[in-house]
Design brief:
The complex is a heterodimer of chains A (about 475) and B (about 240).
Chain A (H helix, E strand, L loop, with lengths): L11 H10 L1 H23 L8 H17 L1 H14 L3 E5 L2 H14 L4 E4 L3 H5 L2 H7 L3 E4 L2 H8 L16 H12 L11 H18 L2 E4 L3 E3 L4 E6 L3 H7 L3 E7 L3 E2 L2 H15 L7 E6 L12 E7 L3 H4 L15 H4 L4 H4 L10 H12 L16 H5 L6 H14 L5 H14 L2 H19 L4 E2 L6 H4 L4 E2 L6 H9 L2
Parallel strand pairs in A: 1-10, 2-3, 2-4, 4-7, 5-8, 7-10
Antiparallel strand pairs in A: 5-6, 6-9, 11-12
Chain B lengths: L1 E4 L3 H6 L1 H12 L4 E3 L9 H5 L3 H15 L4 E4 L2 H14 L4 H13 E3 H8 L8 E9 L2 H7 L3 H7 L3 E5 L15 H4 L1 H18 L3 E4 L2 H13 L6 E4 H6 L5
Parallel strand pairs in B: 1-2, 1-3, 3-4, 5-6, 5-7, 7-8
The chains are: A alpha/beta (about 475), B alpha/beta (about 240).
Chain lengths: ~475, ~240
């Protein structure tokens, strides 16, 4: 598991505390959440205008993705054959390191010194930017959020809004330093002006980069195309201006037909941003043809495994249906208390809590499957009906099966179950516990400091009853 | 009709009045209500922690105690969800238990859905002077589809007005062991729930799951709010008092 070396997922608990106490981050998150939730709700409600029902549509989407996965090898073969026929090259990468190696090779072969990138989370899995920089090639992120994150020397904290953890003020300060227009000359929170500024910088890069690197939302087997769903238009620049275009994508992204893609497109933008369709939907096929004004002279697809194939036929196969819309994190109370960086690897929120242990090793991300209240707000909004809480639960089970849970927890559960299996003993313990809690509350009806659950009483009182259990009072009542 | 009332460990230990309120509500339906002697814990904590063998053992014990009744009623969406949705999964591959788990699941009901959907009972609602806001607990809402039932029942209470809070379907951050394992995150989440409750401006917050209520009340009091009451819906519907 090469990915594990860079994962910080083991430090989730400690990081969670830091993030909760970070007032600036909390401001950014509290502002973003209602926007995400509200937009999606509107987007889903608007399906009715097209005579569509979300539940029906999502079950169709789920079936399409299940069919893709059931014969994934077949669709990949067909994709490879069709893409090759259009003049593109198709390469395969087992892991992130191989992705980086292949891209650096391609870049070297074409003698490039700068790469423009359109958002690709897989390139984060591969640590591609570091590999490019080490090879003397400058990677420039061109998605506005991703550009901001790169300037700040950070990683994306969200899969569709990479800089959602930053406040406008922080971005202003960053731009003031990086773009050489000092703060005192700026109108505060002038977002259009800030976007213009970034655009001016990026335009130069678009025109001078010799290689464009993008992800793909889907690969379409029947046409050998990559489908790109974007709102800023940078994706179009990256994939058409440079003479070389490299598409990096997971093997699970292939769908059989354009029709399947069209159906999934009814779900993806609505779930992500509430839009019925994104500003740009690009279907990229082959290379620049005779008479074309633009387009790459060379197109290379790199199809990546990096742990995905292991999930096929496993208890976790449902996770491969994911279409990376971000709805699960946008509706997750845990995600919005922390932001994405607490999760310690590329993918945050509920989908990350499933993917990170699976791609970097269950033993390297013990907290993540437990970092859920079980509320299932994620499962309820997932456009392809992935049972995220059930998958997290399966990971918890696997931790137990492999003896990875702390002994104190195992012992406590065993003791609890042992007592709960013996009603008379249970009654006796419960009575003692009720007395003890009441004594700790000292007649006030609440405990302010509780040594057995310090994380509870750090922020909350513990309300308790009068020191008698229900069963005790009930038996007393039954006796004449 | 013979009903079993399953009171849940939290009610037993932390708030017996909820158990007695549920008992009164069920007795008022005219059914014969039994509190099965040996009941302890449905096994949800073990299940949530990912410990299948312990969850299975406790589930078998609960099933043996509960399957003799026409219906099992639980004043908690999360324990009802455990029996209705998890037990059948637990025994899906066990021919001896699978059928029994399915039958018990069908007969098991969360209290408000039992009163509103099954009994469609018109009970003599008590008086309640004041306004309440309702918190939809996650397992009941998303696991069992409990949404309109508690509201229908509350509106039968004389003198009670319902003031919906913003985002009433948002999780309160309790999540069982989560609230202790990730206390700071849990507190952060319940803080927002407390803000929503404050925005509703009701005299009391009402819910169907004691876990959420203990979490909400604990945070509210720590924040210095001593006046907003935190009540289980059974307590509101049955009128206060114990025994």
């Amino acid at each position: 598991m090469l990915a594990a070396g860079r994962s910080q997922a083991m430090h989730f608990h400690a990081r969670a505390g830091e993030k909760v106490r970070n007032a600036v981050l909390q401001r950014a998150l509290q502002k973003a959440k209602p926007l995400f939730v509200g937009k999606r709700a509107k987007g889903i409600a608007s399906l009715a205008e097209d005579g569509l029902d979300f539940e029906m549509l999502r079950s169709t989407g789920k079936n399409i993705r299940n069919r893709n996965l059931a014969d994934l090898d077949v669709w990949l073969d067909i994709f490879e054959e069709r893409a090759t026929a259009t003049g593109a090259e198709v390469l395969w990468a087992r892991d992130g390191a191989e992705v980086s190696r292949l891209v650096v090779d391609i870049a070297r072969r074409h003698g490039v010194s700068k790469a423009v990138k359109s958002k690709s989370m897989l390139s984060e899995e591969a640590h591609l930017n570091e590999a490019l920089a080490a090879a003397g090639i400058r990677p420039v992120e061109t998605d506005l959020g991703e550009y901001i994150v790169q300037l700040a020397g950070e990683t994306p904290s969200h899969i569709i809004a990479p800089a959602v953890h930053k406040t406008i003020g922080e971005i202003e300060a960053l731009f003031a330093t990086e773009h050489g227009r000092p703060l005192e000359t700026r109108t505060s929170a002038d977002i259009p002006a800030m976007a213009q500024e970034a655009r001016a910088v990026l335009r130069q890069h678009f025109l001078s980069a010799e290689i464009g690197i993008s992800g793909a939302n889907f690969l379409i087997a029947e046409t050998g195309s990559a489908a790109l769903v974007t709102n800023e238009g940078n994706g179009r620049m990256v994939t058409t201006l440079p003479k070389v275009h490299v598409v990096i994508t997971g093997i699970e992204k292939v769908v059989p037909t354009l029709e399947d893609f069209a159906t999934l497109m009814r779900l993806l933008p609505r779930s992500a941003t509430g839009q019925s369709i994104s500003n740009y939907v690009s279907l990229l096929t082959g290379t620049k043809r005779e008479g074309d004004h633009d387009g790459p002279e060379k197109t290379v697809f790199i199809l990546v495994d990096n742990g995905r194939a292991n999930l096929l036929g496993s208890d976790y196969q449902d996770m491969l249906r994911c279409i990376r819309c971000g709805a699960c994190m946008n509706h997750c109370p845990v995600y919005f208390s922390l932001g994405g960086h607490a999760y310690g690897w590329v993918y945050p929120g509920p989908m990350g809590s499933v993917l990170t242990p699976l791609y970097t090793g269950i033993e390297n991300a013990l907290d993540l499957p437990h970092a859920s209240t079980g509320c299932n707000q994620c499962g309820a909004v997932c456009p392809v009906d992935i049972p995220l809480p059930a998958l997290m639960h399966r990971l918890r089970e696997e931790q137990n099966e492999r003896g990875l849970r702390p002994w104190s927890e195992r012992l406590a559960l065993k003791a609890w179950a042992w007592v709960a299996g013996r009603p008379a003993l249970y009654r006796w313990f419960a009575r003692r516990a009720a007395r003890y809690l009441n004594w700790l509350a000292d007649g006030s009806g609440r405990i302010r400091i509780f040594g057995l659950a310090p994380e509870w009483t750090a922020g909350r009182d513990l309300p308790v009853s009068s020191g008698r259990t229900f069963h005790e009072l009930y038996s007393a009542r039954k006796k004449p | 009709m013979r009903l079993a009332l399953y009171v849940t460990c939290l009610v037993d230990l932390m708030r017996p009045s909820v158990g007695f309120a549920a008992l009164r509500l069920l007795e008022a339906t005219g059914a014969e209500v039994v509190v099965p002697e040996g009941q302890t814990c449905c096994g949800q904590p073990a299940w949530s922690a990912g410990n299948r063998p312990l969850a299975v053992a406790l589930a078998k014990k609960a099933m043996a105690e509960l399957e003799a009744y026409d219906a099992v009623v639980i004043p908690s969406g999360s324990c009802a969800d455990q029996i209705r949705n998890v037990y059948p999964q637990l025994f899906a591959d066990d021919p001896h238990w699978a059928g029994r788990a399915r039958v018990l699941a069908e007969r098991t009901h969360e209290l408000t859905s039992f009163l509103a959907d099954v009994m469609k009972s018109d009970f003599a609602a008590p008086d309640f002077a004041g306004s309440v806001t309702y918190h939809d607990a996650c397992k009941g809402l998303r696991g069992l589809g409990i949404k309109h039932q508690p509201r229908e029942l509350l509106l039968k209470v004389r003198g009670l007005s319902l003031k919906e809070m913003p985002d009433c379907e948002e999780c309160c951050g309790f999540g069982g062991a989560f609230s202790v394992k990730f206390g700071e995150v849990s507190t952060q989440i319940v803080d927002r729930k407390c803000d929503a409750i404050a925005a509703a401006g009701a005299d009391a917050v009402v819910g169907g799951d004691l876990g959420c209520l203990i979490n909400i009340e604990g945070r509210m009091r720590r924040r210095g709010n001593e006046t907003t009451r935190v009540l289980h819906i059974a307590e509101v519907l049955a009128g206060g008092g114990e025994g």
